[in-house]
Structures are given as structure tokens and as C-alpha cells.
Automatic annotation (TrEMBL):
Heterokaryon incompatibility domain sequence ranges: 11-160
Superkingdom in the source lineage: Eukaryota
InterPro entries, A to Z: HET (IPR010730)
Protein name stated in the entry: Heterokaryon incompatibility domain-containing protein
Length: 483
């Protein structure tokens, strides 16, 4: 299909939730029928309502994914999925069917207009004869009306909202408006109180303006993504992880438009959900409430947050911080036509510890026998420690006698109750096949954190003058290949 942004004519894009059995789709067999024309009254209710809005704004074209992408062609789907960045960013505005669970739910609702406005309470003043007027509304007004609706839990909608310069939301009670700078609604036509839109990408635009570029492809791979820009990316990825997808394989494609936006502006290289210039920072993502994998099919390397389902927390380095691994190589190759979804291999150099699980305690704690240097032998004196594991997903088999490997990832100082506390993050690695501790092939299955200095000293850490815990000199290092 043609890229709608290439014609220069204004168009409206639709953001809506598909039903379980869509009754009208563009298929190879129905292409000729669509080209001959189809009465608007034969379309699903939401599509019909969108035509009413287009007429109201005197806009001739609309973009609806079910009617603009061949739904029985994987090749066309992959090609069109890569254009979502252009489709939504170049639309005059996007209409969001926020209150509908499927394409027949429609946009318009019957309602009592007076019920839309905030309640007004008038109370006498204690100090003057003037009566004070107060408006009562919920502080999370936006979340209750928009984000809590059925549409915005859908993974594909996330980038549709954030890429669109303007969004018109049709909720169950009123119309909302959002652009990159403001958010308004019928109840609050000037601005919604106490609401700061996470759609505000001013940090990204400011960076583009400072570089003197507009969003476009360019090469500047040697520069490091500014921490302020990386922080925006981190927040978006974190929010996206709370969304659901019908197909687990859509994890990369449904976020590809946002990735392309950052890639075009920063010139950085996108690597399976991480960025080349901030790769080591990107490895520090944590799952605290693991869920089962939606599919057993390979989707992403285990070191990428895209390999897990459910919410995760990507962490930012603190003011006093040190990486404890060295990036040797990272290799990714596209999975099919989509360059954002890939098979990847990562090689790190770091201090590796071999561990044998002994007894399970409670709340995720295990008694663990740890061997410094990652090997079992007379030259290494093992020690026992209690560790609370945070696994990346449910269903991981850990049991008595199982051998795992621990890889210190980073060390930082954090203020906890007005006291600086040293924190070291370890990756939990599951060995794949037989391997030498000096050259191990494994997959990531979780993480854990140690803050007790005494325990860290068992692992070969020592305290610096600033309080940061770092690995002692002379520590043995290994090469770790993570799939």
C-alpha cells in the first residue's frame, strides 16, 4: 500500500481496539471489491463515525489499519508495520476510540452534558462575608478517563498515541484533546489541572533543535545519547511494558515507531531494545513481579527487556556509579523483514561466580554456595550466603543442587533514609550446555541485589574512599556469551 504521508494531502488516522473476530478486513481476495468502492453504511460503527469527523473537518482521507494493510499477507504487514512512524506522525490528527472494546463500539455516546463538568461547592468564608466557590474533581482525572479505558491497555496503541502530533479522544463521557504541549477536555477547556502529559517529548525536540536537525536519518554513531534523552526513552519503555499484546511476537513491531523516532533524532544504533551508546546502562532492567511467558517462541535475546512479558523497571545510573563488566561484542540480525526484531548474541568480560543452590528459604531467598572465580577446585574457597532472587519470568526451574552463575553488572551509591548505601547488581545466568568458567555460554534468567558490605567483601569487593564498592585488583575475569 502507499505511504499516506507521501501524498501531502491531510488525513486522519484511527486508533482503536480490534475485536476478537473483525468482520471487515482488507484481504488479497477483497482488494478489487474495495477498489470499486464500498458504502460507508456497510462499515463498522467506529469507521462510520470516523467518516463523520472527517467531513466535519473537511478532510478527504482516513487511515485505518484493517483497511490499509493486507491482513493475509505477512510481507505487506511487515512492510507497513515499519511505516507506523510516518503514518501517525504525519497525520493531521489521530482519533482514539477510547471507550470502545471493538470496531463496532463507535465514537459517539449519549450523555448528560451537565454531568461532564466538575461539581461545584459554595462555602461561606470564616473571615469574610464572601462565599468561596470550589470545583471538585479527581486528581487522577486523566488516568481515570483515558488510561483506564479499554483502548489504552493495548500495546499497539502506545506508539499510536505518542507518535501522533495531536490526538482526539472519544471517551465514555466527553472528548479529550492532547498534543505534544497541552492536554484539554470539555470539562477543562484551558488545561487539565495537575496533569503533566507523558506524551510531552520536549526533551527530544530540544535535543534535535540543539543539533540543528529535523527528525531524519543521519549518521553520528560515535556520540553518546544524552542522559536526559535516554531518561525519556527509559520512561517510555517502562510504560510500554504495562500494555498487553494479542501476539507476543509483536513486542518489537508495536514499539518500532518510537524506536525509529529516537534513532532518527539521536543517530544512535538500536540494538534489540537497547541503544549502542548506552548499552551497559540498558542491561540494567529488573523484573519484580514476574509473569509467565506469553509464548515459547523466540522473540528476543534474554539480555533484552523485550524477551519478557509484563512490567519491568529500567534503571538509570546514579551520580556515583561504576560498570563492572566490559562490552566485548554484540551481534544482532533481523528476524524477517523487521530490523527492530532480532536474534542477538552478547559477549561480556567480567568477574564470574559459580553457585550451587542448597536450600530454599522463603520470599525468594536461597541458601547458596558460591565459588569465587567461577570454578570448583582446591584453589577457590567457597562461602555460603543467603540471596533473594528476582527471576525474569515465571516457570524458571531452580532447585536444590542447580548450578547457576552470577555476574556483577554495576555498583552504585544510593541515599536511603539520609544514609549513602552501596548497592551492587548481579545478573543471574543459566549455563547452556557444557562450558568452561573462563568462556561460558548462558542465558539471563534474573537478577539480585546485595547491599551488605560484609557479603560483598566475600565476593571480592572492596570499598573506595567515596564509599562505592568495587572489585578488588587481581580478580579473575571471564568471557561470557549471553544468548
Amino acid at each position: 500500500m502507499l505511504d499516506p504521508s507521501s501524498s501531502g494531502d491531510p488525513y486522519i488516522a484511527l486508533s482503536y481496539r480490534w475485536g476478537p473476530s473483525p468482520r471487515l478486513l482488507l484481504l488479497s481476495s477483497s482488494m478489487d471489491e474495495f477498489l470499486l468502492g464500498k458504502p460507508i453504511e456497510d462499515l463498522p460503527r467506529t469507521f462510520q463515525d470516523l467518516a463523520v469527523i472527517a467531513r466535519k473537518f473537511c478532510i478527504q482521507y482516513i487511515w485505518i489499519d484493517a483497511l490499509c494493510i493486507l491482513q493475509d499477507s505477512k510481507e505487506d504487514w511487515h512492510i507497513q508495520a515499519l511505516t507506523m512512524r510516518q503514518v501517525y506522525s504525519h497525520a493531521a490528527f489521530t482519533v482514539a476510540a477510547s471507550a470502545s472494546t471493538d470496531e463496532d463500539g463507535g465514537l459517539f455516546r449519549r450523555r448528560d452534558p451537565s454531568s461532564v463538568f466538575p461539581s461545584i461547592v459554595r462555602l461561606p468564608s470564616c473571615t469574610s462575608p464572601i462565599t468561596n466557590t470550589f470545583r471538585i474533581f479527581e486528581r487522577d482525572y486523566w488516568d481515570r478517563n483515558i488510561l483506564a479505558g479499554p483502548l489504552h491497555k493495548r500495546g499497539w496503541v502506545f506508539q499510536e498515541r505518542h507518535l501522533s502530533p495531536r490526538v482526539l479522544y472519544f471517551t465514555a463521557t466527553q472528548i479529550f484533546w492532547e498534543c505534544f504541549e497541552e492536554a484539554k477536555c470539555e470539562s477543562f477547556p484551558k488545561e487539565i489541572p495537575f496533569h503533566f502529559s507523558d506524551k510531552n517529548l520536549s526533551t527530544l525536540w530540544d535535543f534535535a533543535e540543539a543539533k540543528g536537525v529535523l527528525p531524519r536519518n543521519h549518521s553520528d554513531n560515535e556520540s553518546v545519547m544524552p542522559m536526559a534523552v535516554y531518561s525519556v526513552w527509559r520512561d517510555l519503555a517502562k510504560q510500554y511494558s504495562h500494555c498487553s499484546l494479542t501476539k507476543a511476537s509483536d513486542k518489537f513491531p508495536a514499539f518500532a515507531g518510537i524506536a525509529k523516532l529516537f534513532q532518527e533524532i539521536t543517530g544512535d544504533v538500536y540494538v534489540a531494545g537497547l541503544w549502542q551508546s548506552r548499552f551497559l546502562e540498558g542491561l540494567d532492567w529488573r523484573v519484580t513481579e514476574p509473569v509467565s511467558k506469553a509464548s515459547s517462541e523466540y522473540r528476543a535475546p534474554s539480555w533484552s527487556w523485550a524477551s519478557v512479558d509484563g512490567p519491568f523497571r529500567p534503571l538509570l545510573p546514579g551520580a556515583i556509579f561504576e560498570h563492572l563488566v566490559e562490552l566485548m561484542t554484540v551481534t544482532v540480525q533481523p528476524d524477517g523483514l523487521d530490523p527492530t526484531g532480532c536474534i542477538g548474541y552478547l559477549t561480556l568480560r567480567g568477574s564470574l561466580f559459580r553457585a550451587r543452590l542448597k536450600s530454599e528459604l522463603q520470599d525468594g531467598y536461597w541458601e547458596v554456595e558460591v565459588h569465587p572465580g567461577g570454578q570448583l577446585g582446591a584453589g577457590s574457597k567457597p562461602f555460603e550466603v543467603q540471596i533473594q532472587f528476582w527471576l525474569d519470568y515465571q516457570g524458571i526451574d531452580i532447585h536444590y543442587g542447580k548450578i547457576l552463575y552470577f555476574l556483577p553488572l554495576n555498583s552504585t551509591l544510593k541515599e536511603v533514609q539520609f544514609e549513602m548505601v552501596a548497592e551492587v547488581v548481579f545478573l543471574v545466568l543459566n549455563p547452556l550446555g557444557k562450558g568452561d568458567h573462563l568462556q561460558l555460554t548462558c542465558s539471563r534468567i534474573g537478577h539480585f541485589i546485595i547491599t551488605q558490605r560484609r557479603t560483598l567483601k566475600h565476593f571480592g569487593f572492596q570499598e573506595q574512599e567515596d564509599g562505592l564498592m568495587v572489585l578488588s585488583l587481581g580478580q579473575e575475569y571471564s568471557t561470557v556469551l549471553i544468548k
